[in-house]
Each structure stands twice: as C-alpha cells, then as structure tokens.
C-alpha cells in the first residue's frame, strides 16, 4: 500500500516546497515520516501538473529528494537486519500532450519505480461535443469523438526512455454522461445527474435503465445510449477491459490501476477481478509478489514499531 500525496485539488501546494532545496528536503522528510509511522510500502506523488519547465525541473528534484530520503531509511533498516527493506516511489502522470510534454519524463524515470498513467477523462463536460473518455485508439471516421487516445501516449513515454514495464495503464471505474446528443462527436445539452457528481456515474450503476451498450474494438472503447433522453455515457465495458488487458500483455506494460475502486461491482461483473483473472489470477504466477517491510522501528505507534504478529 502506497501513500499518494497531492491530487487534482491539492496539486498547487507542490509549487512552493518544490521550489527550494530546503522545501524539498522538508517535504521528503515529512513524507517519509508518514511512511515510517503508518507502515506504508512507498510514496506516490500526484502533482497535476507542472505548468512550465521550471516547475518540471523542480518536480525532478523533489522526486530525487524523496528517493534519497527513502534510500537512507532503507539503509538504517538493513543495518537492523531487515534485509528486504525497499520502498517504492511512483507518480500519477497525465495522458494529455499539453501536460506531459512539459514534464521531464526521462529525468523523472531514474527515481521512479513506475508511472501510473491516468488514461481517462479524455472527454467530459468541458467539451462542446460528446466523446470517448478512455479509448485506446483514435477514430479516423469521427475524430471529434476521440480528442485523445492512449496508444500515442504510451509511445511518447517510451520514446522518453521509459521502459514499457514501468508504465501502468489507468482505467476508469466510472462513466461520463452527455445528455441530448445523437452520438459520439455530436453536440449535447447537459451532463445530467450522476452517482456522486452531476454527469459522473459509478461503473456499478451502469448501464442505466433502457440503455443499449455499443462497443468498438477498433477504438478500444464503449458507451451506452438511452434513446428517450438521448443520453450517452462513455465508460469501459467488460469487452473494453478485456481488450485493454490484452493490450497491456501484448505491449509488455507494467500492469493496470483504477480510479477508483469503490466504483467497481462486487459480483462476477467486477472489472478489477476480470483483469486479475486475465493476468492469470492471484495464484497464476503472473502477478508481482515481493516481500514487504513488516517492521517499522521508527514508527510512533507501538504495534508497527514492534512488528506485525505472525510475520
């Protein structure tokens, strides 16, 4: 379990501490202290997003400071006999060219264990027309329906020297709605209601009543459509998730992640379970298994400081 710091709302708070050596050191020390106290297996930095090259460079230096602080902590643990001590550093990273082309991805790479690619929100309420929000490939027949696509993003990251095995493909466990439209790439009137925010429906609440599901293997995308209200909801169906699982395996990517797990179903239609099964299941030999640290001698909590029972 990694502790993720930042996120869309809090990302502006990265700018000041990342801008100086003192701030970066303080950020690294306090972040790692949270890890020590609570028994996390690593840290994930979710800065959305550096807006210019200066902030991009500071992000690299911030990752360096965090990695060095963790390396120092690992050394103290190994000196105390914790041989397998290792903690991961990751980032949540963008799929939009105007965002990722600002970032110094190649320089970030040396400090990171993997990149969590946020391959969703390609279309939404900010657009003038409806569209696919998490498609793999662009549409040549209806380009307005696919303003962004995953395949060129993967290729760009790899061109920066990032190994495919360090790219984790993000998938949505929610759908984005467009009401009063005739189909993808067409105007709409509003986004309508949602599970917890207008226009956003959890996967477990989809498809909505009286909706027909449409799937395109050419795009690696799906959507539902309810004709009476002309409501289109772009989301990943089981067919799309199967295709994405195969894509991950064929391209040698590092795996998958989701935003976010509470939107999934708990029955045999669970998308997370489907991907795990596609990768060979929990005991199929394809999933990553590695010992994690169970003793945190510098934690402020007695139970973590003394180690977990039965370790």
Basic shape: globular
Question: Which spans of ≥5 residues are poorly predicted at pLDDT below 50?
Answer: none
Figure out the total of helices. 9
Q: Specify the oligomeric state.
A: single chain
Largest beta-sheet details: 6 strands, parallel
How many β strands by DSSP? 11
Whole-number total of structural domains: 1
Rg value = 21 Å
Major β-sheet strand ordering: 1-2-3-4-5-11
Q: What is the CATH class name? A: Alpha Beta
| Share in β-strands | 15-25%
Q: How far apart lie the N and C ends?
A: 17 Å
CATH architecture: Alpha-Beta Barrel
Features:
311 residues; alpha/beta; TIM Barrel; six-stranded parallel sheet; 9 helices; 11 strands; 31% helix
Polypeptide structure, described:
This protein is globular. It has one domain (2-172, 237-306): Glycosidases (TIM Barrel, Alpha-Beta Barrel), CATH 3.20.20.80. It is built from nine helices and eleven strands. The strands form two sheets. It has a six-stranded parallel beta sheet. Strands 7-6-10-9-8 form a five-stranded antiparallel beta sheet, with no helix packed on it. The protein starts with a strand and ends in a 5-residue tail after the last helix. The mean pLDDT is 96. A hairpin with a 4-residue loop joins strand 9 (221-226) and strand 10. Helix 2 packs across helix 3 (53-79) and helix 7 runs parallel beside helix 8. The protein has 311 residues and is an alpha/beta fold. The chain is 31% helix and 18% strand.
């Amino acid at each position: 379990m990694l502790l993720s710091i930042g996120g869309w709302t809090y990302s502006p708070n990265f700018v000041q501490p990342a801008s100086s050596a003192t701030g970066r050191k303080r950020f690294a020390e306090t972040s790692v202290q949270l890890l020590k106290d609570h028994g996390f297996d690593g840290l994930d930095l979710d800065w959305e997003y550096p807006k210019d090259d200066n902030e991009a460079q500071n992000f690299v230096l911030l990752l360096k400071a965090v990695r060095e602080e963790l390396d120092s902590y690992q050394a103290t643990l190994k000196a105390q006999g914790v041989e397998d001590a290792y903690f991961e550093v990751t980032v949540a990273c963008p799929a939009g060219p105007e965002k990722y082309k600002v970032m110094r991805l190649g320089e970030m790479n040396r400090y990171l264990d993997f990149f969590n690619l946020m391959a969703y929100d390609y279309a939404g309420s900010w657009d003038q027309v409806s569209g696919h929000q998490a498609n793999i490939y662009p549409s040549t027949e209806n380009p307005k329906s696919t303003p962004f696509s995953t395949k060129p993003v993967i290729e760009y990251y790899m061109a920066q020297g990032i190994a495919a095995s360090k790219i984790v493909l993000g998938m949505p466990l929610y759908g984005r709605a467009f009401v009063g439209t005739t189909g993808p790439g067409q105007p709409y009137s509003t986004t309508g209601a949602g599970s917890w925010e207008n226009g956003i429906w959890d996967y477990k609440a989809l498809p909505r009543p009286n909706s027909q599901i449409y799937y395109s293997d050419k795009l690696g995308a799906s959507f539902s459509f309810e004709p009476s209200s002309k409501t289109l909801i772009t989301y990943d169906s089981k067919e799309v998730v199967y295709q994405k699982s195969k894509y991950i395996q064929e391209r040698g990517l590092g795996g998958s992640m989701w935003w976010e797990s509470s939107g999934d179903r708990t029955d045999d239609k669970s998308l997370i379970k489907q991907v795990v099964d596609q990768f060979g299941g929990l005991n199929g030999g394809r999933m990553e298994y590695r010992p994690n640290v169970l003793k945190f001698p510098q934690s402020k909590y007695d139970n973590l400081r003394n180690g977990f029972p039965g370790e």
